[in-house]
Every structure is written in structure tokens, then in C-alpha cells.
Amino acid sequence: MMARRSRTIRRQRGFALLWSMLAVMVIGIYLMQLATIWKTQQQRQREEALLQIGTQIRTAIELYVTRGTGEYPRSLEDLVEDRRSLPARHFLRQAWMDPMTGKDWSYISAPGGGFLGVHSKSDVKPLKQQNFSDASRAFAQSEHYSDWQFAWWPQRMGGRRQ
Q: Superkingdom of this entry's organism (predicted)?
């Protein structure tokens, strides 16, 4: 009688161990899926910030050039505080960092010095591939965020890249 009971208990322990391992495996798979969703959400938020901040920088460059002497800014700080006239003008609230990398932007050089735009240094493929505004329609089907150039092109090109 005692031997039969101990065999039953051992079988039940093995069965419980199997179920415990299965539960851990299912929870692990669930957590991996959750991490993937979270990562995608974070990338989508940074992408939206990239579009908003990049557009602000493009507009600030245009205002800096057209409301001044025609020179391009030398840094984002020039857009935050333009001291070419009194009182100083402010085209950007702050010198934003690249939202995709958290680091400095890559500058697009302007003819004659300064910069006419910025782009991210990120080589990640964008989630958004279509439905861009007219000013950003060139971003469609881009391979990398670094392809998204937020620039105000020289006036001889009509303010847009040709």
C-alpha cells in the first residue's frame, strides 16, 4: 500500500513539473511578444518626434534665411537665438537632439557656409513609408531614417529640392 502511494506521488510530481515548465515557456513567449510590441511603439513615437522636430528645424532655417541677410545658420543655437539684429530673434525653442539616436543631428552643408538642413544618423528602417505631408513626400519608401532630410533648399530652386 505504501509503495503504491509513493509511486503515485512521484508521478504527480513529474506531472506538476511538466505543467510548470510549460507555463514558464508560455509566459516567456508572451513576454517576447510584448517586448516586440513595446519596441515598435517606442520607435513609432520617436519617428513622430523626428517628423515634428525636423519640420520645425526646416521652418526655422527658412525663417532665419528669409528674415535676415540671406545667410544660413552655423548651428542650431543660431536658430534658438539669432543675434544678428536687436532684439534677438528666436526661431526654435531649443536645440533639439535627434530623437532616433538621442545624439546630435547630421548637418547638410549650405552653399557659402552654414547648414541648410539636418538629418538623423540612424540607419534603422522607418516604420512609416507613405502618407507624408507635401513638404516631406520625398521620405516615402526610404530605407533609413538618415534618408529623411529636413532642409530648406536655396531660393534659386524655389525653396525645394529639385
A: Bacteria
Instruction: Report if residue 25 sits inside a domain.
Output: no
Within-domain flag for 153: yes
Residue 28 has which C-alpha cell? 516567456
DSSP-derived 3-state class of residue 36: helix
**What CA–CA distance (Å, rounded) separates 72 from 91?**
13
- What is the reported pTM? 0.78
Number of folded domains in the chain?
A: 1
Q: pLDDT, tens digit, for every residue of 107-150? A: 999 988 999 999 999 999 998 988 888 888 899 999 999 999 99
Q: Residue 145: is it exposed, middle or buried by C-beta count within 10 angstroms (0-12/13-18/19+)?
A: buried
